[in-house]
Amino acid sequence: MTVTLQDFLTRLDREIRAEADWGEVARYIPELAGIAPDQFGIAVATADGGMAMAGDAEKGFSIQSISKVFTLASVLGRIGEQIWTRVGREPSGSRFDSIWQLETEDRPRNPFINAGALVVTDELLTGRSPQDALAEILGFVHTAAGDDDIHIDREVAQSEAATGHRNIALAHYLMSCGNLHNAPELVLGTYFHQCAIEMSCVQLALAGRAIAGLPGAPLVLSRARARRLNALMMLCGHYDGSGDFAFRVGLPGKSGVGGGILLIAPGRASIGIWSPGLNVFGNSHMGTRAAEALTRETGWSVFG
Amino acid sequence: MTVTLQDFLTRLDREIRAEADWGEVARYIPELAGIAPDQFGIAVATADGGMAMAGDAEKGFSIQSISKVFTLASVLGRIGEQIWTRVGREPSGSRFDSIWQLETEDRPRNPFINAGALVVTDELLTGRSPQDALAEILGFVHTAAGDDDIHIDREVAQSEAATGHRNIALAHYLMSCGNLHNAPELVLGTYFHQCAIEMSCVQLALAGRAIAGLPGAPLVLSRARARRLNALMMLCGHYDGSGDFAFRVGLPGKSGVGGGILLIAPGRASIGIWSPGLNVFGNSHMGTRAAEALTRETGWSVFG
Amino acid sequence: MTVTLQDFLTRLDREIRAEADWGEVARYIPELAGIAPDQFGIAVATADGGMAMAGDAEKGFSIQSISKVFTLASVLGRIGEQIWTRVGREPSGSRFDSIWQLETEDRPRNPFINAGALVVTDELLTGRSPQDALAEILGFVHTAAGDDDIHIDREVAQSEAATGHRNIALAHYLMSCGNLHNAPELVLGTYFHQCAIEMSCVQLALAGRAIAGLPGAPLVLSRARARRLNALMMLCGHYDGSGDFAFRVGLPGKSGVGGGILLIAPGRASIGIWSPGLNVFGNSHMGTRAAEALTRETGWSVFG
Amino acid sequence: MTVTLQDFLTRLDREIRAEADWGEVARYIPELAGIAPDQFGIAVATADGGMAMAGDAEKGFSIQSISKVFTLASVLGRIGEQIWTRVGREPSGSRFDSIWQLETEDRPRNPFINAGALVVTDELLTGRSPQDALAEILGFVHTAAGDDDIHIDREVAQSEAATGHRNIALAHYLMSCGNLHNAPELVLGTYFHQCAIEMSCVQLALAGRAIAGLPGAPLVLSRARARRLNALMMLCGHYDGSGDFAFRVGLPGKSGVGGGILLIAPGRASIGIWSPGLNVFGNSHMGTRAAEALTRETGWSVFG
After folding, report:
1. Please, what is the Cα angle at B273 between B271 and B279, to 5 degrees?
2. Most C-contacting residue of D107, D229, D247 (CB-CB within 10 A), to test interface
3. What is each CA distance from A151 to A157, B137, C104, D271, in whole angstroms?
4. Cα A128–A132–A137 angle (5° rounding)?
5. Span C195-220, average pLDDT
6. How do residues D34-80 score in pLDDT, each as one tens digit?
7. D278: DSSP letter
8. B304 to chain A: which residues are within 8 Å by CB?
9. What letter does residue B263 receive in the DSSP assignment?
10. What value of ipTM does the predicted structure carry?
11. Among residues A130, A142, A149, which one has the least CA distance to residue A220?
């Protein structure tokens, strides 16, 4: 790039704030429905150990489905690749909360749709309480980000527990198929709490360094495992908008319905983006545009 | 790598030939059904202009669905991104010859499943005859590979035309939905012939150089377009086995039912692989294993 | 009834002609697209050998899918119940021209959706030419109706052959599944011609007497077989509108996209109805209302 | 019939007990899993006010899904035909506990699949407690059968509440779609209790007299409503085995997973059958055979 990364982010923030269409905030989680959509933050942790940022980069938000990456990493660290007997690794071609494939297939398509994430959380509950499972996920995040202040917003968790009927349906359906080993209530309680982890863009960028394989990142997972997580994020990280995201952005990423995106430029950078207005696929509208602008400017697309 | 690429390929060829399970040859195209599954070739065109190869790297085979990449590149060159109004860019989550999604969706999910490829071929037929359309596809391949000897095996094309009832069904279904603009017979004839292009691993590796963005590659498509083709190949290039291929190999690729794989390491190499025995997804069994071994050895995975 | 059947039909015809909404004529068969929707005829053959009628009861129309009943009866007469190894007997829950279930199930759901009807016609072609198969179907109709003047409208058949891409897709898909034994072109040609049989309401009512089990009806099928045909018509005769038809009318019936309905009151009457405007399910809009009024007046519903 | 109905039932009972294959008892409700499959009872209430019976006709069993008929009748009596805005009247083409159609359609296909029955029960809960709703259903049954001893087996209800994850999933999914108005826990509690009503074949036959329109039956529903209930039972009463049941038996009926069948011969008889071994569709195996033998002997098929 001809300008510094920091200069680019500052300009990007200014340009985005001049936009009119920010998408719509998710309505189905009451605690999130009241958030103003026209907010934006970005933070980029680079291979040289630096951190560039702009906008609301230090403001906390609900990471929601981005937590699926951290939970999966925890489970892979604990039981390794045998998790793939319970969940697939293929794009589902369906919405994030889709249930119909469970009726004809023996396992959820991938760990990033809700059905698959519930199975991963269920696996983490094997032989431990929800409190211990959540402590393990938070511990992974604390170590990965190097920040013990990251915590769960219990009001968001309770808000979702009271209204998350689609997820409750998924958990009981999985139970009826024999692909849930713990009581659905325990799995759902753990899942709603992991989704309610609150992080800022800066914290997210820091937590992603190991997945990006940046020098000096905390040793929370092996390079081979990071590589596989990136493959999964590229193929399945944005649900049935994953193809569009790959086409436009060209980097692995995982979105959350709170408007966050964890974006990985392998070997180069770990990026946290947040803007709560969503597009039709349930991914951050302005966050996706920012990711696209960033890779255009930096040439970080893995596709050349 | 600690050994030279050529040494590695030679060793890989030897190791693969010691294997027992080569998968099964596709039975539904009579001309291909008689081919021995236990054949293997690989060719790697590198950024320095070199070419390493091993096994049956110069033996011709039917590229089949790999032709979809070349046809799409031709169409993009002609009409640009407006092709996306007629075909999507998302993984389908279904088999390569699946028809059910056409019943509820307005366009095929992506240009690499058969339904989508038929639409792309139909687009190329706008205002020109099947002969001219095939000449355009072949011309693209000739220029990209720098080899005018590449040709169509008409016996394979006729074999498929006589037995390809699934594809005939897809074309007429698309026609009934208004997403085919030319007579199904013309589209199918063109499609069966483009699939019957015969190439060797070496020719395939040469033809992929522009997509890999290798220095000195023929100027058949822009870097931005190559990047997007790679994104499409990564997300959709191996049908409902794309997630598994990305997870294991970590490079964009496109498979053909003839056992070929065009594999792209952006900025680094263009690779042609061939082994006619297939796995359950209809992708080359041993070819996938070779691709996996190659990226493990070279560290070329785009995922770090 | 307190009035005679003839008086009721005369009044019904008058009331229907005062209506404003006649539905829409099918657009996808060019020869049928030009027909005025606001036409209506009804004919009722009763157990006492009488015939009451009103409106355009003697005007010929294209029976289309009603022909599926006669073809099935012919096949049952020839090979008996073994046809059920190739086609099911359950409502499909989908549109008449639906294809998606063929992707996961081994046979069409029932003989009255298009996919199932193609299989039945294919069975009739076993060991005979399309000409002979059509002669057999026509022969059945001639005997059943006692009228050798019933014939095929070849212009309608050719119109449909040129534009029936959905049916062409179905035939080739069935072929690819191994559930078509003759060339798709032959099966389709026969099918389009059987659908193009032209009959009037009176001829239809006469042809249905054996299915209704009326005294003195020509012996074209056994009582047990007639009973089973009625069960199939009740469950599947109006595609995904069969439940609504049973709920409102309470009699077995088979509709055609030309606007005809063959309605059976077992032991009591055989009824031919025609009005070319269709409802959302592709069944005659005013014909369904007339059937409903008829059973309300006569108390002929089989449901009490 | 050349023999009396009673003689026929006695002979039928003897013949059935000589059979070897009784099907399998449903395993997913623990309280029902222990029941011996080789039991059989039948009771026929006729238009002359008589009652013939054989086998275990006075032994109580869990009516399970047969309760859906009584609940629907209660709701129709309360709010009339407006229930059809919340549930359809078409065969679903899917299993009794299927969920996938809820993902693309706005209401369950019919009131006899589990999803539809939950909506009907939810409607009955409008403005009243589960206790009052259950009292209303039981009241309907008591009046219809003329027997106040009919009661709910609370152990079966609790057994199902603890293990009915598929139904719990359906209720929460409906809630997430806005098609459940009361708390899923209340709807499920009511539903599991209505399914746990215990009745004998004799009680069932008595309770069905009004639906059959028998002279002297208690006035629990109008003739028009009875007619429509029969249509629904004929089209949807045996789930995705309804077509086969209509084809073989030719009468409206509703099955329960406890092995019971309520069979209606409009104007002629109301029949209760019980045999707990099930066929692949989840309907009583020997009960279906008995129904088939009964209509063959009596000629009561509505199809002639």
Report:
1. 130
2. D247
3. 12, 57, 47, 63
4. 115
5. 98
6. 999 999 999 999 999 999 999 999 999 999 999 999 999 999 999 99
7. B
8. 212-213, 223, 226-227, 230, 264, 266-267
9. E
10. 0.96
11. A142
